[in-house]
Amino acid sequence: VCPLVTDEVDNDLNDVLNTLDLHTDIDDNCYIDYTLVQPPFVIKDALFVNGKGEIFDKAQPSECPSPKQDMPETVDSDRMVTLWITEYMLNTAGYAYQQAGFLQYNLTNAD
Asked: Between 12 and 63, where is the model more confident?
């Protein structure tokens, strides 16, 4: 990547991204938070933008107790965009929907 692009990413892109709303409603119960966990950076031919990717209950947002996973620091691909989704993101979804009461079901004798 040319030095001009690297300089723009290192100095300006983080400022622009900080002005964006990085929370998106999934439905009436939960939202996804993809705020940056570190400033964007360039390595060889790739631009890295690491977002949280955590899902929260709207009524009572709280951190999922599952351990977070590290994201890979290198890319062995010639693809333009690579998206990593870890077990942690899926765990936060399960936790948020459980907290919201969406995943609760009472078994009765009729079941």
From this structure: 63
